[in-house]
Design goal:
The longest helix has 18 residues. The chain has one domain: Lipoprotein localisation LolA/LolB/LppX (outer membrane lipoprotein receptor (LolB), chain A, Clam). The protein is of the alpha+beta class. Strand 9 and strand 10 form a beta hairpin. It is globular and about 65 Å long. The chain has a 15-stranded mixed sheet. The protein has four helices and 15 strands.
Length: 275
């Protein structure tokens, strides 16, 4: 476990990666081969609709102990904390010291964010979209559901298949729906039809270059379809960076509310409000 000072510095970076994803242009990637036949594509559409109907019965919130690993060609780092997530995009990540006292917290509703630093007695609040614009980051993830990415579920809206192709190395398939083009970034779904399993997401820019990829290490269907993915890999980030999230003690029976994602602000803290 890193020191408190190092944790605060690292958290500022890692939280931005988790909740905003620092995505720039990547390398071109050809991940699929021949397209599905018309009949196979129709069968796939029915399968995706059935999977979505099943997932609608799952809880819309969870909490877990979460380890976040950040890897670059020059350094490896890690933090350990407590994660809460509520659909569609509420999230909170809390780090405590060995005595259980809060040292750092991030919370967001997908549109605004809050940071509480108890060591420096500082509270920061701002707009996620504006933050990403200032940092010249793509906006597509600020407009998407982080609950979806952290649980490994399909989008909740009906999927109309625009393209569907077999993976070039096996019989899994890649699917692009008509609703998957936002801010010039196309989101492909990687599906294993035989196992009724979502394997990940691939994000491509208008030139077909990889912006980022989210993949799940679980390649076998879980008996509990509502259980979030335990191992999440975010790769193809700038400068060869990767983020790996490991979740333990996942609890889907917790019933979180939007009010649970407001951070308490002591009156003597320095308050900084960003546009």
């Amino acid at each position: 476990m890193p020191s408190s000072k190092y944790s605060r510095k690292f958290c500022g970076t890692i939280f931005l990666i988790i909740l905003c994803i620092t995505l720039l242009s990547g390398c071109a990637s050809q991940r699929w081969s021949k397209p599905l036949s018309e009949d196979d594509s129709s069968d796939l559409a029915l399968l995706l609709g059935d999977m979505q109907s099943t997932e609608k019965l799952c809880p819309n919130s969870f909490d877990a102990d979460a380890k976040i690993f950040w890897k670059t060609p020059v350094a490896n780092s890690a933090i350990v904390g407590y994660l809460q997530v509520l659909s569609p995009s509420h999230s909170k990540y809390v780090i405590t010291n060995p005595l259980g006292m809060l040292t750092y917290a991030w919370a967001s509703d997908g549109k605004t964010f809050q940071i509480l630093d108890t060591i420096e007695h500082r509270y920061i609040r701002g707009n996620v979209r504006s933050l990403m614009i200032r940092q010249q980051l793509p906006l597509v993830f600020a407009e998407e559901s982080w609950f979806l990415y952290l649980t490994g579920r399909l989008p909740i809206h009906p999927l109309t298949i625009q393209k569907s192709n077999y993976d070039e190395s096996d019989q899994t398939v890649w699917v692009l729906s008509t609703q998957s083009n936002q801010n010039g970034v196309k989101r492909w779904l990687h599906i294993d039809p035989a196992k009724r399993l979502l394997l990940g997401f691939l994000f491509l820019d208008e030139e077909g270059k990889t912006v980022a990829e989210i993949s799940y290490e679980e390649t076998e269907a879980n008996l509990d379809i509502c259980l979030p993915k335990k191992h999440i890999q975010i790769s193809n980030l700038p400068w060869g960076a990767e983020v790996h999230i490991e979740m333990e003690n996942i609890n889907t029976s917790i019933e979180l509310q939007a009010s649970d994602f407001n951070l308490p602000v002591p009156t003597d803290y320095y308050k900084q409000f960003l546009p």
